[in-house]
């Protein structure tokens, strides 16, 4: 299984790789514009008439996007599953209007994620929603498992909120594997600002399980097709 941090197996000269790159760039460009739209939407004080007109305009745009719809079980062609690029991940996906998106890199035996939360991610006024913090940590601890060669699914996530997470502030999320026990992988994670990286605002303990192969095939039929 490839690590999500590893490069794609296709070479840049490969026409299929060029096409994939082109597709991903376009998806990321749309994701970027949609994130700006989401941000503008949750900030707007436009009149009801203007808001209604915009809703009609957005509906017309959405109509253009409905073509080959995928079922939840399908893997997008632009993705690498398992263990690779997820263009529409709600945390790291450059094509997701919901994602901050968090950029992940290796870091001191684990992984680090960098992102900003916007008003769309707000919980208490001016601060991030606790569920969003848990989502960032869950995802990054999952990456830490994969980067350690032990990909798994979350079975337990415990979060402690020590301080509110400021919006529109560069954040540093960290995660690493602390221990493994058969199929269980134990992880720790934290969120701090880039400005004060040693002041932990949220910390988490996560337990992941590498699913039994039969369970994994039942959950992800695509794994059978890939063989
Ligand atoms: C790189 C991309 C990163 C993405 C990260 C995103 C992470 C996620 O959000 S994953 C989504 C949320 N998680 C889930 O939906 C998982 C739901 N759980 C399941 O489907 C199953 O428990 C699954 C598939 C993980 C494991 O099933 P299976 O392979 O049958 O394992 P199973 O035999 O039941 O359990 C293995 C061990 O874990 C323990 N365990 C399983 N579930 C739990 C649980 N919820 N709580 C505590 N222990 C548990 C079992 O007791 C067992 O321990 P032991 O061997 O000591 O008895």
UniProtKB/TrEMBL annotation:
Topology of the protein relative to the lipid bilayer: Peripheral membrane protein
UniProt cross-references to InterPro entries, sorted A to Z: HotDog_dom_sf, THEM4/THEM5_acyl-CoA_thioest, Thioestr_dom
Enzyme class, broadest EC rank: hydrolase
Coiled-coil stretches: none
Any matching Pfam family: 4HBT
EC number: 3.1.2.2
Record domain Thioesterase: where: 126-192
Keywords in alphabetical order: Apoptosis, Cell membrane, Cell projection, Cytoplasm, Fatty acid metabolism, Hydrolase, Lipid metabolism, Membrane, Transit peptide
PANTHER family the record matches: ACYL-COENZYME A THIOESTERASE THEM4
Name of the molecule in the record: Acyl-coenzyme A thioesterase THEM4
Species assigned in the record: Streptomyces akebiae
């Amino acid at each position: 299984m490839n690590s999500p941090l590893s490069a794609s197996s296709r070479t840049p000269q490969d026409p299929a790789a060029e096409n994939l790159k082109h597709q991903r760039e376009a998806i990321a460009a749309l994701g970027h514009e949609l994130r700006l739209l989401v941000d503008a939407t949750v900030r707007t004080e436009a009149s009801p008439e203007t808001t209604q007109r915009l809703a009609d305009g957005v509906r017309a745009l959405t109509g253009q996007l409905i073509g080959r719809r995928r079922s939840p079980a399908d893997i997008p062609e632009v993705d690498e599953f398992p263990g690779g690029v997820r263009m529409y991940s709600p945390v790291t996906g450059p094509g997701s209007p919901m994602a901050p998106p968090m950029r992940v890199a290796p870091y001191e035996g684990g992984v680090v994620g960098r992102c900003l939360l916007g008003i769309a991610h707000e919980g208490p006024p001016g601060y991030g929603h606790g569920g969003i913090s848990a989502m960032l940590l869950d995802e990054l601890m999952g990456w830490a498992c994969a980067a350690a060669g032990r990909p798994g699914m979350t079975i337990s996530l415990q979060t402690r909120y020590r301080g509110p997470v400021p919006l529109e502030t560069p954040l540093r999320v960290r995660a690493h594997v602390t221990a493994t026990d058969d199929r269980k992988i134990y992880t720790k994670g934290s969120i701090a600002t880039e400005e004060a990286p040693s002041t932990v605002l949220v910390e988490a303990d996560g337990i992941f399980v590498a699913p039994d192969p039969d369970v994994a095939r039942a959950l992800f039929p695509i794994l059978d097709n890939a063989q």
